[in-house]
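FORM 7B: Structural annotation worksheet

SECTION A. Query
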Amino acid sequence: MRKLNDKIRFWLMLVLLVFAGGVVNVWQRAGEASVSRKSLKDFPVQLGPWRQYGVDQTLDEETLRVLRADDYLSRNFESNGRMASFYVGYYATQRTGATYHSPLNCLPGSGWTLTEGPRVAITPANGGAAFEANRYLVQNGNDRELMIYWYLGRGRATASEYWGKIYTVVDSVRRRRSDGAIVRVMAPVGDSEDAALKAATELASQAASQLPPFVPN
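SECTION B. Predicted structure
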């Protein structure tokens, strides 16, 4: 009886491997579907009460080689004396190994320490569906900031890097698309962490409503 079960498991495994190989082969031959989008350099400079402050920041060549993003935006915004930074890194395809990098991997290498807080709900200013974003207090020397970030791709916003990867695999097969982005907002923590969180979530809410033309659904 045991030998029979072993044979059944063997043949089931063989069938699964053949099927998986066929799916991967079809996926590779089909290639990435083409989607139209706007360049992030054209992202609005006014987001509700938040307005661009200064010029867009340019990342250095070493950082760009690590990120491998196809398009990105790093911009500061200001509203009634409050400041916040906004970053989007977009990847046209993740089939080649280029993918978004979690701040949890990047920031510690730059001298930042991170303290995780409860996730925060972001409701797009245009009335779109609310979603969860990660929340961290980050510090480098005397510089303390409240950071929130999430993953966005093909109409899905998620705080979980794990689920972001799963959705990417599913959409790669089902829709021939693996494009996506990481979105991050950081606000300086002065006397109040709550005030920094309010500023970050306000800017995130405004930005989330404007992202679809730049990170297609």
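SECTION C. Observations
The chain has five helices and nine strands. The beta strands are 46-47, 50-52, 71-79, 82-91, 113-122, 131-140, 143-153, 156-158, 180-188.

SECTION D. Sign-off
Analyst initials: ____
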